[in-house]
Structures are given as structure tokens and as C-alpha cells.
Amino acid sequence: MARGDQLFYTIARVAGGVAVSTLVPPVHAVAVRGLTKVYAASGQSPSREALKAIDLAIPRGSLFGLLGPNGAGKSTLINILAGLVNKTAGEAAIWGFDIDRQTRHARSSIGVVPQELNIDPFFTPRELLDLQAGFYGVPAGRRRTAELLEAVGLSSHANAYARTLSGGMRRRLMVAKAMVHAPPVLVLDEPTAGVDVELRRQLWDHVRELNRRGTTVLLTTHYLEEAEQLCDTIAIINHGQVVACESTRSLLGQLDSKELAIVVDRDLTEVPAALAALAVEEAVKLEIGRRLVVRYRPSRVRIDTILAAVQAAGLGILDLTTEEADLEDIFLTLTRGSDGEDREGSGGSPLDTPASGAPGLGGSAGGGQTHRP
């Protein structure tokens, strides 16, 4: 860890706990550089490189999405940050603290909500939060048990055995457990897997509120629409490499593709000649008699050109809708061909862009999000 990174903080010991007084908060809540993990050969299984010298910077205060197919390396990265897996090479810092040289401070700066529900069924939510706070050395007088139970809507169940809670309540209790030591970084690993729509909305309302109050949230999810709506920045990891890391808006703008559906005022038996002429560059097809679908590239064809071709064919327009590329399109483009296992070489992608200089761990002004394709 560079000495300059330490100038962001003053550290004070407080009665069994650690208080971090932020003079100037870090630009990056999490920063990794050249992070590599190789799982050794076991039995007849060969060694496997799960992370391949990745660079990644998560801006402070962001709601950051980490996406990728099964086996891409997401869980390995999270487990390294959480101290559950040892890295093979590279550096990583959480809130400016190196995970190797300042382990205690790094782990005090992160809370992790795992996908699995690991709650003792014979404890009450109040007891579980107090116990968890004790593990982090939070003095009894500084614990926020009642506040956290209120925040996750479990105050009325504070003294009920955990085994009596519904699945949704247990999910919310897991979030509260991860926040007992007030970490500035919260990791949510597939938090809405298998939950119903209403619970998912409630959970995300709470996550948005945490983020609004300043908590940096790192989310992994397989619900791509969810990530698209929630996250301001998204990284996609595939075969142990970060193949994209940009703002959600910028990422969505990289696929130069739109679809225009036009309902005309009479039945057709074929695509009109004026529109068929566009098919040299664009895809035009006729659906259900009156519905024409044009897939086009906005960089090459303007929408008014398409509408003019419809009018030139003597057709009236009753309705039209447009559909832009979504995160699923981006995800499939970047991870096409994945078989769910880490393999040597990622094959690249038209959307890959070169790294623009990895930031120093702990964050430096002007760093931005970087990746190493």
C-alpha cells in the first residue's frame, strides 16, 4: 500500500473496536490490481486459473454490479476480498486498506451477504445481531441492533426464533448482520435468488436507501434486468478476466442496434419494395400480416428514413414501438460461447476496450473504472 493512500485516514482505537475518521474519503471503495488466483491441481483435476491478473476499481458511493456466467470468477473475487480465499498474486484494497498488510482494518470495512442463508435457527434476530457485533469487537454501548432491525423491517420479530421467520425475513436479517459494524462497503452475492417479486422490491428499496446514505454496494446477480435498473456501474467478468467495466448507460450504448415495430393500416403479403431496399443494410421482416419489424443500426440509418420508406409505400401507420439493446444483449455478446467453466483465453469481444491506466490502490483522482482485457 502506497504511503499516499494512508493519508486519507486517521485511525483511532476505541474501547475494543476500531473507529475510522475519514479526512478525505478514498476515490475507490475497492481497488484491485493484477489480482490472480490459481487453484492447485487436486487428484485428477488440473490446476485452474480462476482470476487472470485483473484490474478493477469500484468508485466510492457507487451501486456497482458484477456480472458473469457461472464459473467466471465472481465468487473467487468476492471471497478474496472477504478474506475467505487467499490470492495467488496481485494487490487488493478495501476502503484504502491493503487486505494483506492491514487485514483487520480491511475486513472491518466490508460486510458480505452470502447467497446461502447461514442463520442459527435457535437464536432470535436481536441475539444474532448482538452476537455478530461482538465478533467485530463492537462495544455493547455502540451497537445498533434496534436501528438495524427497524431498517430491515424486523422490529416486530426481534425476539422470535429465526426458524420461525419467512424466507424473505431471513434474507433481510442477513443484510442486517452484514451491517452490524457499519462497513462502508457492502457486498450482496445473489441476494434475491429464489425470492418472490414483492420481497425483491422491498430488498432493493432497502439497498437503494443504504446506497443513498453513502454505503458503496457491490452486487452480483443473474437477474440482468435487475442490475440494469439498480446499478450505476457494471463490470462483466468472463473466464477470469474483466471484459467490460463502465457506467451502465455507456455500456448499454455500445451495442449499435435498435428494433422498430410498425403496425400499418392494411394487410400485407410481402415487405414493401421501399422497405425491402433497406434490407441490404438492415433486417426487415413481415409479421402477422400488418406488423413490420425493422432491426437497424442508428449509426447508419435514421428512424425518419424508415418511416419515410413506409409512407413511400403508401401505407398508413397505426402504431409503432421501439426496442433498444438491453443488458442481456451486452452480456451475451461479451460472454458468448461460455460453458460455465474457466478456460485459458477469453477470446476477446468487439466491445473490449483497452485499459486506460489502473488506478493506485486506495484510489487516486481521475482513476475511473479500468479493466485489463
Structure description:
The chain is elongated and about 80 Å long. The chain is built from 12 helices and 16 strands. Residues 1-22 and 337-373 have low confidence and may be disordered. The chain starts with a helix and ends in a 38-residue tail after the last helix. Strands 8-9-10-5-11-12 form a 6-stranded mixed sheet, sandwiched between helices. It has a 4-stranded antiparallel sheet with strand order 4-3-6-7. It has a 4-stranded antiparallel sheet with strand order 14-15-13-16, with helices on one face. The chain has helices at residues 3-6, 74-81, 103-108, 125-135, 145-151, 167-178, 197-212, 224-230, 248-252, 273-276, 303-312, 327-335, and strands at 9-14, 17-22, 28-39, 48-59, 63-67, 89-94, 97-98, 110-113, 185-189, 216-220, 233-238, 241-247, 258-264, 283-287, 291-296, 317-324. It has 373 residues and is of the alpha/beta class.
List the helices and strands and how they pair.
Blueprint: H1 3-6, E1 9-14, E2 17-22, E3 28-39, E4 48-59, E5 63-67, H2 74-81, E6 89-94, E7 97-98, H3 103-108, E8 110-113, H4 125-135, H5 145-151, H6 167-178, E9 185-189, H7 197-212, E10 216-220, H8 224-230, E11 233-238, E12 241-247, H9 248-252, E13 258-264, H10 273-276, E14 283-287, E15 291-296, H11 303-312, E16 317-324, H12 327-335
Parallel strand pairs: 5-10, 5-11, 8-9, 9-10
Antiparallel strand pairs: 1-2, 3-4, 3-6, 6-7, 11-12, 13-15, 13-16, 14-15
Helix pairs in contact: 4-6
